[in-house]
Structures
1.
Amino acid sequence: MENKKLEFLRIQKEEIIDDLKVCISYTPNRDNDLLCFMEQYLKEDTEKRTNLLKEIKK
């Protein structure tokens, strides 16, 4: 019984760690990056949009 519980906890731990790794590792995705920049641009004050626009154009 104890071994099953330990194995279950080990598997849970590995799944949690894998989920966390996905959050901290960056996979380039130009479409996603562009959408994020566009969202930031729309939310930003007018005077700060110029810098974001330069980044979007890259």
2.
Amino acid sequence: MTPGSIVVVDWRDALPESGEPSKQRPAVVVGRGDLFHGDFGYLLVVPLTGDAAMCIAEASVEVPPTRENYCSKRCYALSWNVQSVPKRRVRATEARVTAAELKAIRDQIARLVER
């Protein structure tokens, strides 16, 4: 699970009425490999959704379906919803976003926290 990998995160124990998905959902790994290495128990991810209503224009990246990402429809990486998740909640896949999509997601995250 390296930056750009699409993983499946198990959020099935979400708090009621928290707005969390409360199901298994895809996400893109965005954390630096040297910080979120094999021995560290967490990954930094952004959720993927097919719901355009969840997007904030300046903080979401459109991900069209490709053979590499295994998406069946247009998805959106929600950069505004970056989060750290325990690796025990994560299942690896062979899917990936492009280098350009990963860069766009990371650039948006950086802009979200600029002072």
3.
Amino acid sequence: MTNTQALRKGMFDSRLSCIRKLRVGDKVPYWGGIKSLFAPVVGFLPALDDSSRGNYGIMDQVAALHWVQENIAEFGGNPRNVTVFGHGTGAAFVNLLMLSPLARGLFQRGVLQSGSALSPWAIARDALTYTKQVAAHLKCPTKDSAALITCLGKRPIEDILNAPLRIPDHLIAFGPTIDGVVIPGEPADLMEKQTELFSQYDMLIGVSRIEYYSKFTSQEDKMGIEEDRRDRLLRTLVRNLYNYHLQEIFLTVVNEYTDWSKPDQHPINILDATADAMGDALVVAPLIRTGNYHSKLHKSSQKGTFMYVFMYQTEESYYAQRMGCIHGEDVPYIFGAPLVNSLSHFHRNFSRSEGSLSEAVMTYWTNFAKYG
């Protein structure tokens, strides 16, 4: 039985563990994740004219990678063997770093967990409009870019963050923008046609069993949803993601995610199918497309493309057992939360077998970081 098969069956070999006790003076691997320290409107205010530049949040991440290059050897790390990983929006950032000339040579591998640059929420397509909405709400000029920036700079950060915005579901107001410099072009084009940067990296991608869950109420989780609720969710998705043939796309999605072998559609089945459709559209399909682009580069590159599906549902989870694991369920296992039971962000009691799973998952991640 392979380690992957053992993982899926819930069987783990303690020999897989790479965890050891550390003593003062020991050299340790640097296991760091890049976090966005800014609210989107602050870290990703778009370029308003030729005198300004957007994508500051990504440039901060590039600066952090430069710091790693300059200092990681002092912590026992290897600047020529750096892996960057992220979850959700963080995964989209990792993907964008793999496509940015500013990050060239700063890392060698990327892990994209439940997100990619091809997800519809990864790129801010109308950030300038939302910037002007924020400015208008704060009574700042909207036509003079320099005056707008100066005015916003004088406003309390709380007022900026609390400015009301009407953002379509599944899209973002502020975030990475295609500026021709930090992000030189459309992510799909950079992956498919201008492959020089994308082909430099080993890549691991993965998803959880259910990637769309948060929009359902606890009552819906237990009882399911009716067809009219499903239709509203799917029509909103189609309307916000596509410009043409909306009715045809909607009907195609409903047809594809309906089990026609059952004459009567139970509300639970409707909910589960809707969750699959939403998760596939927003996370899974874009991520698989990203993986396909990368795997096609193997003929010209020695780099590898790997994929996982995280299926395990934590015993003390707060949602229905039939769902399997949901978006984010893999994160505590990657950070070793079941091994310590004291990471404040994860308020759960993990079982001993879940500690073994965490050891296995951490080993998979560290092995990828070491060897690709």
4.
Amino acid sequence: MLRPYILPTPALLRQKPPATKVQKATKKRSPSSHPKRRSRLAF
């Protein structure tokens, strides 16, 4: 388990960015963030 973390292989690095991006997209699209964005647009 320590080997993959210490050795940043291109495959792991390529697989990690998409996963984080997907999670961030889902979090941004959450209903809690939508009202905040709407309030900002209203202001």
